[in-house]
């Protein structure tokens, strides 16, 4: 396979270092969904609203990639915090884990918020976009559904890990509702993709 940026990303995901990890993958998948939406919007230039959809999806694509990169860094830091100290000491380990997982939860939340925004734009595109390209909108929706699921999974996992190593009530209160919203949105995205993909 040619040595490309995509190949480098896949090699990174396959490596046993945690940066990039699942959150990064989810963010990239969300960005792919946004990019596909842009393609449909650009093929829909006869619709007045299409230019705005293209512009907003482009901005969201950039946000998804930036958040995916931050998530990889947070994942790497969390992996380091979880490793036992070289001297075998457990002193301060819980604090380090909670600090690192707090950062990881924040990046998961940002990825989730971006995916929710992409879903909103794709939902509009499903009614405004070029009717010959609804299959591409459906693929974009399936992609963002995966991004939503990844963000929800990592968000919930982070909250659980934080609670196992310290007082995570404030973190939980700030983000638990978002996790459920992401799961609900994933169902919405999948259902719309199925409707658009019907013959």
What's the gist of this structure?
The chain is mostly helical. The chain contains six helices and no strands.
Distance between the termini: 35 Å
Using the CA coordinates, give the radius of gyration: 19 Å
Average predicted confidence as pLDDT: 91
Class per helix and strand makeup: mainly alpha
Number of strands: 0
- How does the major sheet shape up? none
Strand-residue proportion: under 5%
Which term fits the overall shape?
elongated
Order of helices and strands: HHHHHH
Helix segment count? 6
Characterize the structure shown.
By secondary structure, this protein is mainly α. Helix content is 80%, strand content 0%. The chain contains six helices and no strands. Helix 2 packs parallel to helix 4 and helix 4 packs antiparallel against helix 5. It starts with a helix and ends with a helix.
Summarize the topology:
Layout lengths: L4 H10 L7 H21 L7 H33 L10 H36 L5 H32 L3 H28 L3
Which labels suit this protein?
199 residues, mainly alpha, 6 helices, 80% helix, 0% strand
